[in-house]
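Cross-check.
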Amino acid sequence: MAFSPLGESYLACYAIWYEPAVDEANIPWLRAMMSGADPPGRGGHYVAEADPEAGADAARRCYAPVDWERLRELKARWDPDNLFRFYLAP
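Predicted model, tokenized:
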């Protein structure tokens, strides 16, 4: 797996529901809870549990800054036409 350690601790927030009709209520609630546990400018994400739909910044915060830039350079080199939809795309 790809993993770029960002800190000394790891907190995972999960929510489970069974009815798609309550997505509109539950998804914002979960994101608000996650945001409350993630101090601005300090938090990161584990790449396999990031939610790219929550914002473009979520994917970037999965990696240390130098690693993120290296991944973007590799993506630009090997997929210059953005054939593959990927969170590294600009």
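The two ends are 23 Å apart (CA to CA). The chain has a mean pLDDT of 77. Passed to J.P. for a second look.
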